[in-house]
Every structure is written in C-alpha cells, then in structure tokens.
Amino acid sequence: MYKMMTPGPTMVADSVMQARSRIFGNPDVDKDFCEEYHTLCRELGELLHTENEVYILGGEGILALEAACASLTEPGDRVLVIDNGIFGRGFADFVRIYGGDPVLYTVDYHRPVDVMELSRYLEKDHDFAYATLVHCDTPSGVLNDMKEICPLLKKYGILTVVDSVSAMFGEELCVDDWQIDIVCGGSQKALSAPPGLAFVSVSKEAFRVMKGRKTPIASFYCNILMFENYYRDKWFPYTMPISDIYGMAEAVRIVREDSGRLERHQRIARAVRFAVQEGGLSLYLDYGDAATVTVVRVPEGLTDTAIIETMKENYGILISGCFDVLAGKVFRLGHMGQSANIDDVRQMLAALTDTLNSLGFTCRCRMDEVFMRNLQ
Ligand SMILES: *Cc1c(COP(=O)(O)O)cnc(C)c1O
Q1: Mean pLDDT of 249-274
Q2: d(CA 93, CA 101)
Q3: Ligand 1 atom with minimal separation from the 135 CA
Q4: How far apart are CA 289 and CA 367, in angstroms?
Q5: What mean pLDDT value characterizes the chain?
Q6: Which of 87, 146, 162, 191 to mutate to test the pocket of ligand 1 (most atoms within 8 A of CB)?
C-alpha cells in the first residue's frame, strides 16, 4: 500500500481503523447509540467553537453542502455564490437544483476573496437569502477569510453557509464568533477518518428560516430539519452508519488531545511552500495558501500523470492531480490531519525531488532537505 499524501482522503490512525471494526448494535433501536451520537456531535461542536446544534449525516462531505442548500433554498430565492474556486462555483448547482437563483460573485482564482471589494459589491446589492462560501477551496488551496467575510454578510442580514470541509481541524475555525449559520464538514480531510461521513452545525437563525419556509424542503435525505428532534424522540431519519461513526469518534478523540495541531499544520505548510519554490517549482496561488494543501504548477514539458504515477510506482507515495479548470495544470501535495507530520512530508518531498529529476526537470535543490532546515 502507498502513503497517502493527497488533500483528502488522508492517512488514518490504526486506532481509528480498529474502532470501525468494533462489534455494533442496532443504531435505530439501541438508545445507547443515540447517546454516543449525541456526545460525538457535542464534541465536534466544541472543536468548531460553536454552541449550535451539530448533526452527523450519513454521506460524504458533499452531502453537507447539498443539505444546507436544500434546506435553505426556496424557489426564486436569490443566493450569493462567492466564487474564487471550483468548489465555490459548484455551490451554484445545488442552489439551482432546489429552485434558487444563484448570483455568482466571481473573482480571481489565484488569491483569497478581497474583503474590501466584496464590501463595496454588497453596498450596491445585498438582497440575498443566504450566501455560500468556501473556507479552503481545495483544488487551488486558497484560504478565504471567513472571520471577516461572514460578519460582513450578516450585517446585511444574509445567512452564511460555509464549506470548511478541507480547512477545519487544520486551520482555525470559530463558528460562533465568525457568525457562520451552517458550517459543512467531512470525515476524510483533516479529521483523518475514512471517507463516508458529513456533518453540519446549524444556527438558531438558520432553524428559524428553515421552519418559516413557505414551501416544503424538496428532499428527504438532504432535509436538515429531519434531525431537529432526533435526541428528544430517539429517532433518526435513516439508519446511521454506526461503524463509520465509531471510527470518527476515535478520530475526534485524537484531535481533542492534540493541542499542537494547528501550529503544526502552519509550520509544515510554510516549510513545504518554501521548499518547492527553492526547488524551482511555482505555486498556483499568488498568496493565501491554506495550511492543509499545497498546489503546485506542473512544470513545462511534464505532465501531472507522469509525476503522480512515478511517485506512486517508484516511491510508494500518492499525491493528487486536479480536475475541472485546473485539470492537468497543477498537482497537489496534501499535508492535513494524520498526513501533517514531518517524517511523511519529508519522504514526500524526497520522492518528488527524485521523481522530477528522473522526468527531466532538474530541481535546484533537494526539497526534502530544504524542508527540514526550514521547519521553525
Ligand atoms: C473534499 C471536499 C468536499 C467534499 O467532497 P467529497 O467528494 O464529498 O469528499 C467539499 N468541499 C471541499 C472544499 C472539499 O475539499
């Protein structure tokens, strides 16, 4: 098996795999499961710095995004879709599917959203039911400033839906202080559980809007309101994937005990970015990279597939390419969650140096060595 240095899924601790193999009961009938689920939701809430209700949903991260849009969008609603990346733009599809009118605020994909520019835009037009935002847009690795942008939107009474799937647990996230109405997370990024679970936190105001709708929510599986009384009624809208939840509970335990986590992500990310540039590569972004992923331009004359295949076949390390408008243009180095550790990142950069040299791009230095020297 290879070392997984992709920006999700990440490597997973052995104890998480073991927790998933625990003998399980019937999550629909056994009230103890409901307690465990409830406790895990509270623990996630603490990590996200929110008092809001948290629900774990049985599906991949995308389910959280779609559930937020399904539950909030009424036909004809104008929804502000903040687009400086592929996931940012993708929200428009969910808004449209549920009958909303997505209004794209599209800006340069090479840098974070400029808060002053957005502020000037909102002065002229702020008639939106809610806005969608992406904390780290993983295909480019750009980190947007949720701390500034969400309160700005709320000043105009616009609800905030934030996709932090690939930022949370690797970057700071303070849901309540930053006034995020619905935050979307997933199991397989910096939380480092296997793929399969999504979760959302839901503010009182978001609940008020969902309950005050003129039209019913046009989904069952994506209807967040279905979860509202689960604890009181000891009832879930569908059978919870109990083994996945056991695994995620262990991943959450690991994160709770790891107080140096955010600082380590920053330190490793800084040193990776420095090393690849010293090596003669260039970053996709002008500035504003997230601490969870580094996105590098494919050097001229090489292909992403050659780099990725050589890394995997010759060195047993899997990195990632990209898709959509960035397909073939960049490759992505994941350093989030369990993969954000010095030894694995060093090995990844050693393999990358050897791979590029063998493919005809001569690196200006050994990137693994520069990485190690710049880890302060
Ligand atoms: C990974 C990711 C998701 C979830 O995508 P899945 O395919 O469901 O894993 C959503 N948003 C962002 C920004 C992501 O990186």
Answers
A1: 98
A2: 10
A3: 13
A4: 18
A5: 98
A6: 87
